[in-house]
Design goal:
- With about 160 residues, the protein is mainly β.
- The chain has one domain: CheA-289, Domain 4 (OB fold (Dihydrolipoamide Acetyltransferase, E2P), Beta Barrel).
- It has a 6-stranded mixed sheet with strand order 8-1-2-11-10-9, with no helix packed on it.
Length: about 160
């Protein structure tokens, strides 16, 4: 990302395993405690199932599985579901915990390193430097392919 102005973005910061990730706050609709998820037969492996979000059936995906990370998604009391909108479709994403909302100067965001990472580069927007912390910025618009978005819409 480029920027030599004092332009800032607001990020919702959350954890998967021990790493910190961020998504732009304008992509986040709300954050809820992890609730009972109803499994869907023959759903893709990363799709945990659906929840009833105030009368709206909402698909929930396991962000760790989607990103190819090791470990089970949070099963403890700090686990959260981040409700986001992807391609005009509301989906929930399970994360281990949500830590904060912060402002980051755009000039403190570097492009994703070209070295191979555990996460496919297409999902990444860059790496933000915040004090002595590195926050991996996700591109939620690319978390689901158009075909997967269509499948999620069928479920809802």
């Amino acid at each position: 990302m480029d920027g030599d102005t004092g332009e800032e973005i607001q990020l919702v910061v959350f954890k998967l395993n021990e790493e910190e990730y961020g998504v732009e706050i304008n992509q986040v609709k709300e954050i809820i405690k992890k609730t009972r998820i109803t499994r869907i037969p023959k759903a893709p492996s990363f799709l945990e199932g659906v929840i009833n979000l105030r009368g709206q059936i909402t698909a929930v995906l396991d962000l760790k599985k989607r990103l190819g990370l090791k470990g089970e998604s949070g099963e403890d009391i700090s686990s959260r579901i981040i409700i986001v909108e992807v391609e005009n479709t509301v989906v929930g994403m399970i994360v281990d915990s949500v830590s904060e909302v912060l402002r980051m100067n755009v000039k403190d965001i570097d492009p994703t390193p070209s070295i191979s990472t555990e996460i496919e580069a297409e999902y990444l927007k860059g790496v933000g430097k915040y004090g002595d912390r590195l926050i991996i910025l996700l591109d939620l618009a690319k978390i689901l392919t158009p075909k997967e978005v269509a499948k999620v819409k069928e479920i809802q």
